[in-house]
Amino acid sequence: MIWRWFWREWRTPSLLIVWLALSLAVACVLALGSISDRMEKGLTQQGRDFMAGDRTLQSSREVVPAWLERAQREGLSVGKQLTFQTMAFAADRPQLASVKAVDDVYPMFGELRTSPAGLKPQAGSVLLAPRLMALLEVQVGDTIDVGDAQLRVAGEVIQEPDSGFNPFQTAPRLLMNLADVPATGAVQPGSRLTWRYKFAGDPSQLAQYDAFIASRLEAHQRWISVENSEDALGRSMQRAQQFLLLSALLTLMLAIAAVAVAMSHYCRSRYDLVAVLKTLGATRSALRKLILGQWLSLLLLATVTGGLLASASRPSYCVCCSRCCRGPCPQPACGRGSGQSARYSPFLCWWDCVRGACCWPPSHCACCEMMWWPTFGR
User: Which of 52, 105, 219, 331 is 20 to 30 A off residue 20, Cα-Cα?
Assistant: First the structure.
């Protein structure tokens, strides 16, 4: 009876308009949710490249070695950096330099652009900014004195991934290996130093280490992530997330308004039909059953249609995401093989599992654990 009623009403233009509004609403919400998720993930990846790590621990003194050992035990990759200013000499030409001493894992993320390409700070050599090379009047292969150490100029450093923007930095950059710092004699009691420890790992590992280190930070230490960074990168990330959230909210409100208008028009056009059914003996419970069955069938059909429309539009918004993120289109939070994001939409996870875009065979991602029963273990 319900399906006959639904098929009869399906041929009326009013119900078709409601179905079209519901389908477009579902498609817009799904598409925008996926776009927001991919854009946020792409921006987070870019922010990680700009930080050269997932987290940064900044301190004016060396941190407790037990902290770094715990991070390594939990599966995190750890890198060390030390920045200070000292004098560099080439023959009789002195010049103040901003020294960054890094270990062998630098950079964890991002690209260190050098000339010649592909260079990294090795023990016994340095990379100089073009401005510093011009001030010291040295070429690649020459030697300079950095404090008490004599080091060879291996090349130029063009761009560092975590350099940021500081218009008040007067001293040009000198990039060296951390193993050469003791030989320089530049680090003395009372020296103005900045230690930066870079951490990289999975979101679950980082969240666990966040909880460990948050209560142990001292006044001279800062725990920096992409979200809480106070520089221009952190502010840009916050504005982008607010914009994506506002876009999703406006889309949802417009979809609800369109569906409400279409349903109101359809209900007003069915007053006479309901009155005729009542005069023919239809009870209130029978009418409620027919109407609820019709709307549930319509909602199911609109959900399937909207999901298909959202899937069909994926190539177009993947192109937009790849252009905005300047790289490959990021996978969604519960896409195949990712499964590490702590923020996800249950309905989007269900849709990914139904269409086979989640992990197969099932892994321990949040999507698989949440959707195991309704998707029968897919």
Answer: 331
Give yes or no: residues 61 and 188 share one domain: yes
d(CA 204, CA 296): 39
- Asked whether residue 230 is domain-assigned, the answer is no
Angle at CA of residue 53, ends 48 and 54, nearest 5°: 70
How many domains, in total, are found in the chain? 3
Same domain assignment for residues 76 and 102: yes
Q: Which of 164, 197, 224 is the last residue of a domain?
A: 224
Q: Which domain holds residue 164?
A: 55-224
Is 229 contained in some domain? no
Q: Which of 179, 195, 224 is the last residue of a domain?
A: 224
Cβ of 258: how many Cβ atoms within 10 Å?
18
- 338's CB contacts (< 8 A; 6+ apart) are 331, 332, 365
- Whether 71 and 141 map to the same domain: the answer is yes
> What is this structure's pTM?
0.63
